């Protein structure tokens, strides 16, 4: 069953051109060399034009209004970092480690971005405001409580992504507010092309994504997990949400005959070791087909669980489709 630490974490897990327009946010993000070298996909997709705007109602109905295009953006969760990277922007400060990933800024350049102290759950308001942000982007159900303290000093934008469609919508919204419309359209097209290719040749294998720090694991379901929302059309993914309190037992997972298993190991305090290694202590674990065949993949939770934007989801698709062949 899903233990309370994992449940709390999943509640907040369940969120490309170079230019100088937002110079106040730092140097512009660079497109990874690996992306530049990849051949263009042949699958045609349609992307609606993005129109620049100073005010909008976002993909989840939240109204956002700015006096001017933001020049200093503080990110309180990784979807914000993902979106800004796609738009060629570096945040003024961040609250995640996603930027250190080689497909984002990389370890060296990410160290140039200040980290907001206080941790993900309780980032320090004074530290946020010390960066004089024009815009602060956070996860609604976690950082919404900061809104009163930030009111009058900056604009706070609570996002609440649950599916990949939400993430694309937020990408388009941020592109409109920052004036990075061409970059937003390019990022959306790149992601949709990759997704369309994966959906065109789906795997008949049964897949599963689990997360946790110990034997109290959880199952990522398409209704509230952005990465998992990609799976129903690229593989057999028979996992439905059972609400906040519900999850799946190893007995149920064994009965489904999982062929490919993706594991997101979360860290809590002094907890260490891989989740798959801890679950191996349960005799049922070794009977799962994916475990028997050695088709268990420990994936990067910064990308798979926290990133949630089109760049992270592109990495998820690459890794998932390779494993599902």
Automatic annotation (TrEMBL):
Protein name: Iron-siderophore ABC transporter substrate-binding protein
Keywords: Signal, Transport
Pfam families the UniProt entry points to: Peripla_BP_2
Origin organism lineage: Bacteria, Bacillati, Actinomycetota, Actinomycetes, Kitasatosporales
Family listed: Belongs to the bacterial solute-binding protein 8 family.
Highest taxon above the source species: Bacteria
Keyword Cytoplasm part of the UniProt annotation: no
InterPro entries named in the record: ABC_transptr_periplasmic_BD, Bact_iron-sidero_bind
Keyword field contains Signal: yes
Protein source organism: Streptomyces levis
Fe/B12 periplasmic-binding domain segment(s): 72-325
Segment forming the signal sequence: 1-29
């Amino acid at each position: 069953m899903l233990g309370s630490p994992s449940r709390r974490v999943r509640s907040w897990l369940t969120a490309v051109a170079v230019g100088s327009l937002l110079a106040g946010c730092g140097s512009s993000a660079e497109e990874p060399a690996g992306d530049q070298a990849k051949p263009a996909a042949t699958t045609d997709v349609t992307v609606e034009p993005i129109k620049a705007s100073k005010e909008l109602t976002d993909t989840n109905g939240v109204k956002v209004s700015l006096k001017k295009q933001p020049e200093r953006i503080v990110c309180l969760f990784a979807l914000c970092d993902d979106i800004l990277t796609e738009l060629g922007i570096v945040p003024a400060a961040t609250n995640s480690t996603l930027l250190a990933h080689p497909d984002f800024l990389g370890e060296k350049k990410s160290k140039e971005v200040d980290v907001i102290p206080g941790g993900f759950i309780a980032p320090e308001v004074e530290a946020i405001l010390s960066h004089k942000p024009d815009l602060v982007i956070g996860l609604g159900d976690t950082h919404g409580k900061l809104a009163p303290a930030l009111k009058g000093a900056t604009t706070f934008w609570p996002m609440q992504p649950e599916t990949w469609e939400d993430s694309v919508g937020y990408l388009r919204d941020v592109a409109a507010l920052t004036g990075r419309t061409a970059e937003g359209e390019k990022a959306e097209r790149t992601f949709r092309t990759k997704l369309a290719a994966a959906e065109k040749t789906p795997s008949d294998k049964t897949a599963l994504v689990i997360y946790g720090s110990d034997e109290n694991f959880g199952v990522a379901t398409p209704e509230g997990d952005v990465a998992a929302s990609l799976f129903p059309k690229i593989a057999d993914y028979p996992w439905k949400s059972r609400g906040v309190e519900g999850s799946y037992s190893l007995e149920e997972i064994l009965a489904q005959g999982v062929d490919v298993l993706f594991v997101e190991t979360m860290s809590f305090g002094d907890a260490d070791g891989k989740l798959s290694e801890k679950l191996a202590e349960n005799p049922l674990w070794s009977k799962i087909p994916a475990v028997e065949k050695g088709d268990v993949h420990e994936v990067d939770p910064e990308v798979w669980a926290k990133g949630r934007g089109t760049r992270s989801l592109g990495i998820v698709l690459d890794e998932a489709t390779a494993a599902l062949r």
